[in-house]
């Protein structure tokens, strides 16, 4: 029986979907470190994680049974995608399912910080009646600067405009501006115009240290700063200094360079205790709606890959959209992308009298993926010959 291991409190729908497909599912609540993960993956074919579990090359090299990996979140920087591909492990994530949750949190924090609700709330909890308009503003008419105009940034752009904000954005890739949003040629240009700066960049290593003392110095005096993207992109020591000096009037941070692995673990940050600062424990996508949608989406991708070989929206292997078929045998062949592989596969099938009813090939950089449907049982000698090819990474037969 195929086995799956699900970590980090995934939505129960993920387990039930996989179990409905006949997969034996083990659920564990927290993240695992490298040695724990290697031990836990013995005999496991599917792994489901969120952002806390690091799947390194060493883990993948020591998990020979692993076929597919699901990141039940947007980011995949916690996974060695190249190593996964070369080990024959297809990786899937949830690129769209929690964008609305992140957008709503960002908007809530923008309003709360602009109105200084954090300080008014704290005063009343301390028994002080501090009714004042000092430092409190409407968001209407203010300029929102979005750094990273992807799935989250674009949706935030549209909703913020509906609140009456002007939107400027900066992205290293060419992106279509939505609504009345205006693209800035440089990050400095955005910082000089924005009353609120919010980061929504991805986890590529090139973004490490993206925002530091130099960028905080370029922000408009009294501007607000948000980071709901990745913890390692911001120098939080520099942010603390900017807040203490009054150059930044408020901040909201949802991600940190080093985050506890389990609920209830201790947490510390140089940002604790600062005025008009909201700290949240990486909950941007943590709504019941988002987690249910993610659980449904990623588990379906893992199930479909196992049952049909479909790799649609995989982040590390070539994408092929495949449907369930009856009365045929499907051979999936993940291989190193070198000249002549398809011809060699077909020659092997022909030598053993195997008739091809349908075939699809896709490539992605160094990796190729060919799926062949045949109308008869595939002889063991055919499988042995295909598996023995120098270019073969992973071979599966789906009946």
UniProtKB/TrEMBL annotation:
InterPro entries: ACT-like_dom_sf, ACT_dom, AHAS_small-like_ACT, D-2-hydroxyacid_DH, D-isomer_2_OHA_DH_cat_dom, D-isomer_DH_CS, D-isomer_DH_CS1, D-isomer_DH_NAD-bd
Classification via CDD domains: ACT_3PGDH, PGDH_3
Ranges where the ACT domain occurs: 330-399
One GO MF term attached to the UniProt entry: (S)-2-hydroxyglutarate dehydrogenase activity
Entry EC no(s): 1.1.1.399, 1.1.1.95
Alphabetical GO biological process terms: L-serine biosynthetic process
Gene3D superfamilies found in the cross-reference section: 3.30.70.260, NAD(P)-binding Rossmann-like Domain
Reaction it catalyzes: (2R)-3-phosphoglycerate + NAD(+) = 3-phosphooxypyruvate + NADH + H(+); (R)-2-hydroxyglutarate + NAD(+) = 2-oxoglutarate + NADH + H(+)
Keywords: Amino-acid biosynthesis, NAD, Oxidoreductase, Serine biosynthesis
Keyword Amino-acid biosynthesis applies: yes
Pathway terms, separated by semicolons: Amino-acid biosynthesis; L-serine biosynthesis; L-serine from 3-phospho-D-glycerate: step 1/3
Primary enzyme class: oxidoreductase
Domain of life from the UniProt record: Bacteria
Family: Belongs to the D-isomer specific 2-hydroxyacid dehydrogenase family.
PANTHER family noted in UniProt: D-ISOMER SPECIFIC 2-HYDROXYACID DEHYDROGENASE FAMILY PROTEIN (AFU_ORTHOLOGUE AFUA_6G10090)
NCBIfam families named among the record's database cross-references: PRK11790.1
Chain's role: Catalyzes the reversible oxidation of 3-phospho-D-glycerate to 3-phosphonooxypyruvate, the first step of the phosphorylated L-serine biosynthesis pathway. Also catalyzes the reversible oxidation of 2-hydroxyglutarate to 2-oxoglutarate.
Protein name according to UniProt: D-3-phosphoglycerate dehydrogenase
Gene transcribed to yield this protein: serA
């Amino acid at each position: 029986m195929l086995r799956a291991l699900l970590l980090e409190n995934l939505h129960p729908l993920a387990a039930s979907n996989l179990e409905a497909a006949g997969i034996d599912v083990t659920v564990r609540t927290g993240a695992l470190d490298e040695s724990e993960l290697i031990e836990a993956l013995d005999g496991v074919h599917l792994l489901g994680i969120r952002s806390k579990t690091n799947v390194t090359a060493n883990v993948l090299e020591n998990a020979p049974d692993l076929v597919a990996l699901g990141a039940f979140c947007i980011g995949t920087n916690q996974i060695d995608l190249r190593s996964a591909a070369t080990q024959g492990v297809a990786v899937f994530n949830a690129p769209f399912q929690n964008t609305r949750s992140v957008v709503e949190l960002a908007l809530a924090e923008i309003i709360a910080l602009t109105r200084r609700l954090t300080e008014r709330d704290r005063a009343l909890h301390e028994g002080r009646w501090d009714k004042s308009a000092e430092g409190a503003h409407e968001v209407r008419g203010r300029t929102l600067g979005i750094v990273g105009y992807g799935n989250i940034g674009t949706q935030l752009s549209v909703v913020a405009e509906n609140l009456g904000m002007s939107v400027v954005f900066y992205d290293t890739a060419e992106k279509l501006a939505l609504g009345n949003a205006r693209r800035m040629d440089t990050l400095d240009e955005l910082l000089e115009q924005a009353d609120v700066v919010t980061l929504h960049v991805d986890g590529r290593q090139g973004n490490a240290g993206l925002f530091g003392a130099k960028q905080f110095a370029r922000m408009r005096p009294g501007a607000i700063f948000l980071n709901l993207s990745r913890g390692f992109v911001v120098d939080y020591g520099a942010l603390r200094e900017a807040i203490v000096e009054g150059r930044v009037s408020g901040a909201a941070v949802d991600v940190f360079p080093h985050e506890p692995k389990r609920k209830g673990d201790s947490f510390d940050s140089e940002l604790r205790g600062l005025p008009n600062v909201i700290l949240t424990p990486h909950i941007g996508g943590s709504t019941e709606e988002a987690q249910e949608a993610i659980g449904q989406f990623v588990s379906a991708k893992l199930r479909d890959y196992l049952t049909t070989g479909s790799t649609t929206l995989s982040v590390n292997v070539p994408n092929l959209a495949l449907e369930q078929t009856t009365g045929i045998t499907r051979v999936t062949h993940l291989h190193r992308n070198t000249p002549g592989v398809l011809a060699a596969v077909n020659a092997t099938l022909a030598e053993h009298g195997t008739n091809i009813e349908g075939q699809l090939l896709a490539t992605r950089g160094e990796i190729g993926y060919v799926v062949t449907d045949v109308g008869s049982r595939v002889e063991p000698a055919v499988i042995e010959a295909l598996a023995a090819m120098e270019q073969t990474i992973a071979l599966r037969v789906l009946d």
